[in-house]
């Protein structure tokens, strides 16, 4: 296939499935179809296509959000959509985001039967990320209680330096000790900030997804 017929784009979407779906279909409307997605690098690949007698319609894309415990359930899920005229383009059993392309003229224009089931995508997303948050929260508390993790470094960076009497030293003695330990202090600090950021990001995604779910439900009311 000629490289002229391929478009590759890198794009990051935070939580908003509707926005991502609309962006993908903007390329479909220009005569391209979604070929594949690298979820790790956020790379979308589109290929030029022509409407033919076999495909006299735009191969529009719809998104769902589901995570599966095993491959068998995941395969059953994909087969169900294929039987309805939708091809699974991207997504794994544990990726959450699932992408489907319409391939049958008789297929409906959406993979959801109503607006409420479509809004439920965000609830599933919220449930998953909040479950991760509450799973890791006790670990963070346990680290703090047992002293394995000193969260005071988040607001008092001097605690990162363990050299006895460092802050009472002066002149060259202070700078030699300070510069020697700084690389180790930075590593200790990065670990604390990184762990906290990861755990809080779970809560952030979960809350944002819940807000999106309630917003979609409210539209229907």
What keyword list fits this structure?
alpha+beta; 6 strands; three-stranded antiparallel sheet
Can you describe this structure in just a few lines?
By secondary structure, this protein is α+β, with helices and mostly antiparallel strands. Helices cover 48% and strands 16% of the residues.
Q: What report would you give on this structure?
A:
This protein is α+β, with helices and mostly antiparallel strands and 221 residues long. Helices cover 48% and strands 16% of the residues. It has 4 helices and 6 strands. It has helices at residues 17-28, 71-82, 115-146, 171-220, and strands at residues 6-10, 32-38, 43-48, 61-66, 86-90, 96-102. The strands form 2 sheets. The chain has a 3-stranded antiparallel β-sheet with strand order 1-3-2, covered by helices on one side. A 3-stranded antiparallel β-sheet has the order 4-6-5, sandwiched between helices. A hairpin with a 5-residue loop joins strand 5 (86-90) and strand 6 (96-102). Helix 3 runs antiparallel to helix 4 (171-220). The chain is elongated, with a radius of gyration of 25 Å. The mean pLDDT is 86.
